[in-house]
Amino acid sequence: MGRFSIHRVWARQVLDSRGNPTLEAEVVLEEGTRSRAMVPSGASTGVNEALELRDGNKARYGGKEVGKAVQNVQKRIAPCLQGQNALDQQEIDRLLRELDGTENKSNLGANAMLGVSLAVARVAAAALGIPLYRYLGGTGSALLPVPFANVLNGGAHSDAPLDFQEFMIVPRGAPTFSEAIRFGAETFHALRVLLRERNLGTGLGDEGGFAPNLSSADEALELLCTAVERAGYTPGKEIFFAMDPAASEFFDQSSEAYVFRKSDQRRMPAVHLVEYYKELCGRFPLISIEDGAAENDWEGWRLLTRELGASVQLVGDDVFVTNPEFLRKGIAQGVANSILIKPNQIGTLSETLETVDLAKRSGYGVMLSHRSGETEDPFLAHLAVACNAGQIKTGSFARSDRIAKYNELLRIEEDLGKNGRYGHW
Ligand SMILES: O=C(O)[C@@H](CO)OP(=O)(O)O
Ligand SMILES: [Mg+2]
């Protein structure tokens, strides 16, 4: 039994930022080091995501309890990992996949597997006495990511009459990460004043952005321009914009049209939607569009990439689900030029890193991402720096579940000191 042998693994049910149950895993090594990790949860989930195991008893938390996943950790995963070397992350994740034995992790549950996978990495770093980002990425990890801060929440993340899910401010022109946070937070505060003045509502959506009474992307982006200027910055100089329409959510498969159900009921085929994006990109400093087409509209995705891929970052979320197989298909078909990375879409740390590696080798951009149901766990911040991804999407500046990641990045920035870099995306 070596120093880094796993002595004990267990899990418990805790709550996420929406007040829904989620899983927290804990790992203790022979030598006594102990760490834990929490698992987030999405609302606009891709159909091909790994399965999040929930109990389904409607009388308790509306069926959302994760008791089965917790039991899978205690009864099945723990005996399998006991005595394994925590430094051998690939082997741990392989054992988890072997034990599960399914394509989509439906046996053990991706929530059970990911919680353990992340807790093992964290305990290994702690036992070695090095920061998690350095353990995960090695000595070359020094790039602090540009934050994509979702300040207007629509779609499945709020009750606002906005069909597009996310409008983000991107302080790419800031000199450092901490200045980027300041530029972003100041703009967010200016936005609040503006919304109040115009009586549009200052209630918040799931990711801590406002959920105002706006009904089009044009209105949302115009408002963001004004907020940026009010905060003393110039749109397109220090601060840029990004959107996640999350188009799978408003795609009508039978008529193959995108239907703006939350606002004016407009319907458009992909070709018109792409024209609309083009028009918006012409009017606003919009540098990144995620899920501009639906997960099962590969034709629409190809069109979007042909039309806008040379000038705009096109990020695949639902269409790739952090899965190397779907990414490979996308690369072959000329779909998107960047990928959103959400570890719980695939279910283990090693597979997440494999997807990041494939994206980078293929010249695709990489953006690390939270889920709309988050926790206070800042693992994602370390992963973003570890991968030198250069981009992170982790919400607004008004909820501690989102701020936890930004604050951890501020600590990492301090830790890297003069060797940290920013803005090379
Ligand atoms: O669509 C998305 O990119 C995410 C995160 O912002 O939302 P959810 O976690 O609900 O899938
Ligand atoms: Mg998305």
UniProtKB/TrEMBL annotation:
Residue positions binding substrate: 157, 166, 290, 317, 369-372, 393
Key words, A-Z: Cytoplasm, Glycolysis, Lyase, Magnesium, Metal-binding, Secreted
GO CC list: cell surface; extracellular region; phosphopyruvate hydratase complex
The protein's required cofactors: Mg(2+)
The Enolase N-terminal domain, residue ranges: 6-136
Family annotation (InterPro entries): Enolase (IPR000941), Enolase-like_C_sf (IPR036849), Enolase-like_N (IPR029017), Enolase_C (IPR020810), Enolase_CS (IPR020809), Enolase_N (IPR020811)
Catalysed transformations (reactions): (2R)-2-phosphoglycerate = phosphoenolpyruvate + H2O
Ligand binding (Mg(2+)): 244, 290, 317
Active site: 207, 342
Pathway: Carbohydrate degradation; glycolysis; pyruvate from D-glyceraldehyde 3-phosphate: step 4/5
Binding residues annotated for (2R)-2-phosphoglycerate, in chain numbering: 165, 342, 371-372, 393
CDD domains the UniProt entry points to: enolase
The enzyme's E.C. designation: 4.2.1.11
Predominant subcellular localization, coarse grouping: cytoplasm
SMART domains: Enolase_C, Enolase_N
Domain Enolase C-terminal TIM barrel residue range list: 141-424
Biological role stated in the UniProt entry: Catalyzes the reversible conversion of 2-phosphoglycerate (2-PG) into phosphoenolpyruvate (PEP). It is essential for the degradation of carbohydrates via glycolysis.
UniProt family annotation: Belongs to the enolase family.
HAMAP family in alphabetical order: Enolase
Name this polypeptide is given: Enolase
